[in-house]
Write a structure and sequence with these properties.
Helix content: over 70%
Strand order of the largest sheet: 1-3-2
CATH class of the largest domain: Mainly Alpha
Shape: elongated
CATH architecture of the largest domain: Orthogonal Bundle
Largest sheet: 3 strands, antiparallel
Number of helices: 6
CATH superfamily of the largest domain: Winged helix-like DNA-binding domain superfamily/Winged helix DNA-binding domain
Number of domains: 2
Number of strands: 3
Order of helices and strands: HHEHHEEHH
Distance between the termini: 50 Å
Strand content: 5-15%
Length: 121
């Protein structure tokens, strides 16, 4: 079951370690980084790096207690955040595409573009 969930989470631009830790937090509730090391077997340094990545992606939250605990954001909210991030990225690419097309069209004579197309047809 975990493997199928991890594979599906990876489709949302989440690496395998992030997916494993997120799924663990969904199942276990709030955990410290040390507890996640014990439960998952992921190296401590990788757990901290991964937790920071999950925090940046809005998939987990951290407590303000002296001993910091992490908990998973509900799956639907986490995936909505991932989808919104990808949608933003696609909009940025579309804008960049338009700018690049206009830039190239100003710098490359139109007859060269058409001649190249003719050669390859």
């Amino acid at each position: 079951m975990e493997k199928a969930v991890v594979e599906r989470l990876r489709q949302f631009d989440i690496n395998e370690t992030e997916a494993r830790l997120y799924f663990t937090l969904l199942n276990c509730g709030a955990e410290t980084a040390g507890e996640l090391v014990d439960v998952t077997g992921v190296a401590r340094v990788d757990v901290y790096k991964t937790l920071n990545g999950l925090l940046d992606k809005g998939m987990i939250e951290e407590s303000t207690e002296r001993l910091t605990k992490y908990c998973a954001v509900p799956i639907e909210s986490a995936l909505d955040a991932a989808v919104m991030k990808q949608a933003y990225h696609l909009r940025q690419m579309e804008r960049s595409k338009q700018e690049l097309v206009e830039l190239v069209n100003r710098q490359v004579p139109a007859e060269l573009n058409e001649a190249t197309l003719t050669v390859f047809k």
